[in-house]
Amino acid sequence: MKILAVTDLHGGSVEDLLGFNGIDLVLVLGDITTGGSIEETMIRINPLREAYQALYAIPGNWDRKDSCQWLISEGLSLDCRSIRIEGIILYGVGGSVTTPFSTPNEFAEEEFGQKLAGCPEPEKGERLILLSHTPPRGAGDKTALGMHVGSENLKRFIKEMAPDLVLCGHIHEGRDKTMIGKTIIVNPGPAPRHYAIVKITDGITVTLY
Questions:
Q1: What domains appear along the chain, each with residue ranges and CATH number?
Q2: Is 0.90 topped by the overall pTM?
Q3: Within the chain, where are the H helices?
Q4: To bridge 92 with a disulfide, which of 78, 114, 124, 186 should be the other Cys (CB 3.0-4.6 Å)?
């Protein structure tokens, strides 16, 4: 399976993301707009849906409730929802832990932990990929001021559950590929300039662009 992972479009054009070959799945990791309307969300999501075989998304902290509802109504949202595709469980947690900016879709660290509790355990032979707009504390979460602002509950979840891959975003300058235990943590950086290609065969390889 070949996955295109993008995050933090913030209303930017998706034109440069439409021409990749062999993509089986697109995963959008939130902040599709910056508090924009449903129409603005559709302008970013629909071209990606039309260009590729399948797309799923989670909202970010800047995505309004009406846009979140539109993703749900279209069957695209993985916010607190799981699906199984070719032996892979995808589970998502959208929004972010509390920020200094009072954005439309943020919540307390405790609530974030409750949302993670809905993630199913993989059966033998299955892989687990977690989509989280918020990065875990200490991985892909370092701000320009050098502060780590990721979720402690997510870090704890990763250590306990050991998903194969965590795809996150939120912290633009936190673009990184790293590890927590055996789990690959990827913050692709803000699209459309940056994105990640994930290839899943016997193992998982991730390339940042």
A1: 2-208 (3.60.21.10)
A2: yes
A3: 38-51, 65-73, 109-116, 152-161
A4: 78
